[in-house]
Amino acid sequence: MRDPLYDPARALEDAAALPGVRPVRLHRIGLPLFAVEIDALFDERQPYDLLDRFVGRAIAEAQLRTVPEIAGFLGLDEAMVDRVLRFLGGVGHVASRPDGTVALTGLGVRAVRDDTRYVAKRDRQKLYFDGVIGEPLPAAYYGRRVVVWSPEQADDQKWHRLMTHACAFRNDALARLASRPDRRDFNIPDELREVAFRSTSHAYLPCYVLRTETPRGPSLLTYTAVSEGHDEHLEKLCREWPALTAILNAGDSDDVRAAFGPWLVERDIDPARLSWTADGTLRLTLPSADFAAGGRKGTFSIVRLGSYVTARSHVLQLWCDDRSLRGQAVLERALARVTASRNIQPAEAEAFLNRLCTRLETEALTLDDLRRHAYQTGQSPLPV
């Protein structure tokens, strides 16, 4: 089974980049969903046969209403026109009137206007509703990158804790969604009609839930494969979900240092290098050489300085007391961000640089400093 999400360090980096936000825990959960299979009609586009097109236009534009009129106008045999009209009636483009005349249906008018033949087809698809309050998920959750697990797939994985469904699927949920004027935003295109329920089953959406500290107190951020940043839609759900809050609180009694024990042993790092900052951040403080060197156990790339590592939901920050090295790390990380985003604006790049300076506790660095660094490392000119 492929990894359902990106590296959790990316979520931690995004959270730490938000003004005043400090990540303290990262939890992997499987958000409960209802996978609802529906059946609906839609109009499939097909190439217009030449005679179908001409007969349709004769009715729409020349206002012809009978077989003899249409046959005479087009110079065709009446039997042939009759066969064409029966076919168009069968696919819903033409309707017969009590007086023996014919007229285009709404579908037939669209076909003439769009110069295409529409044929009604039945379609099956899945819709997702959250298993917390039973509301439909927006269309973004059907994207190619988004993984949704069946119960069997969810049971096979070992990374994410599967949350229990907090509500039952409501019988009227599909009908309410299908009648909404904005249903397209929830993956029911306007073209679908006669939307009918077929079945429902449980499913799970893998997520990262970050507990954070902010100037306003503790908070939550949620990350999924839906977007590059945090998932505001699911955050509203998670913040008012008692079962999730209880699970997150239950982990507070864990021994944080013990959680990182195997990770430290694997890298031959002395646990004595762990310490707590005044604001409650767990830091692993390493000498400068452990960020400048490569290949040796316990060493890291300079761009990892100030970044985060997780173990059993706990978070620590990689650190170095060398302020000059932290300044280099700021420039390296900002350079990587700017060169990876060729359309980044100067104000955005400067804001990112300022946030890094604050997080890594360095002197203020400017875009001019970044340009000089890019020139010295052979990566100029910058796009800002």
Structure description:
The chain folds into four domains: 8-40 and 123-253, no CATH class; 48-115, Arc Repressor Mutant, subunit A (Orthogonal Bundle), CATH 1.10.10; 256-319, no CATH class; 323-376. It contains 15 helices and eleven strands. It has helices at residues 8-17, 50-61, 67-74, 78-90, 106-114, 151-156, 173-178, 232-239, 242-250, 256-259, 261-266, 289-292, 323-340, 346-359, 367-376, and strands spanning 22-46, 94-96, 102-104, 117-130, 161-162, 193-214, 217-223, 274-276, 282-285, 308-311, 314-319. The strands form three sheets. Strands 1, 4, 5, 6 and 7 form a five-stranded mixed beta sheet that branches. The chain has a four-stranded mixed beta sheet with strand order 8-9-11-10. A hairpin with a 2-residue loop joins strand 10 and strand 11 (314-319). The longest helix has 18 residues, at 323-340.
List the helices and strands and how they pair.
Blueprint: H1 8-17, E1 22-46, H2 50-61, H3 67-74, H4 78-90, E2 94-96, E3 102-104, H5 106-114, E4 117-130, H6 151-156, E5 161-162, H7 173-178, E6 193-214, E7 217-223, H8 232-239, H9 242-250, H10 256-259, H11 261-266, E8 274-276, E9 282-285, H12 289-292, E10 308-311, E11 314-319, H13 323-340, H14 346-359, H15 367-376
Parallel strand pairs: 1-5, 9-11
Antiparallel strand pairs: 1-4, 1-6, 2-3, 6-7, 8-9, 10-11
Concise account of the structure shown:
The protein is 36% helix and 24% strand. The chain has helices at residues 8-17, 50-61, 67-74, 78-90, 106-114, 151-156, 173-178, 232-239, 242-250, 256-259, 261-266, 289-292, 323-340, 346-359, 367-376, and strands spanning 22-46, 94-96, 102-104, 117-130, 161-162, 193-214, 217-223, 274-276, 282-285, 308-311, 314-319.
